[in-house]
Amino acid sequence: MIATLPSAWSRLRRIVLSRILLAVVAIAPLAACQTRPVQVAQDDDSAWYIGSKPDKPFDIPLVDTQRLDPKYRRQQVSYNGPEQPGTIVVDIDKRQLVLVQADGTAMQYGVGVGKAGFSWKGEARVGRKGVWPDWSPTVTMVSLHPDLPRTRKGGLDNPLGARALYLYQGNRDILFRIHGTNEPWSIGEQMSSGCVRMLNEDIADLYDRVPVGTRVLIKRNGKYRT
After folding, report:
1. Prediction pTM value
2. Roughly how many angstroms between the first and final C-alpha of the chain, as a whole number?
3. Tens digit of pLDDT for each residue in 193-202?
4. Which of 179, 187, 197, 218 is catalytic?
5. 33 a catalytic residue
6. Is 195 a catalytic residue?
7. Residues 8, 89, 195, 204: which is the catalytic one?
8. Domains of the chain, first to last
């Protein structure tokens, strides 16, 4: 069921506008997964949203996907790659993520990726999952910016969005995430500081499809191995 966005949208709009102001005065970015918000002021952000999807503890704002290039819209596609069903494959160059299915198809989603020099590639697994997750800076970020808040609660203004998949190698969190975003205009772009971002409605869909332990391949130049 799709509802209108009265209070939630007003709140989101105020948040986005305040972030534009912060960008103007050159406040340091809050998260390793957050983008440079330069493009936000180039568009009317209200035009991106068409309603909301009930969720807890916040409703998920729904994006007008007609504003996206068709190749970045969620869709089922044919798939003949070598990966086993249940594998997540992210193609950094194509700005697409696929979840391989058992019937020769895949669920395909558009993503935003890290700007030049920040895009990680490799093999990992989903070590844990989060719903409207809190954000915390890395040790390196704190050393560079001691005044950063040590945590930021989940919500519409959180750069991790509605869901997050935390990637691990072995038992080690590699600090690389697949997560939602409150900047839908960044899908298909190379703007973030490394993480893979999706529309909030898309990461919620993927979240429900994959368990902890899911294999994840992040490819660049057609390869996930060096």
Report:
1. 0.80
2. 45
3. 678 999 999 9
4. 179
5. no
6. yes
7. 195
8. 7-219 (2.40.440.10)
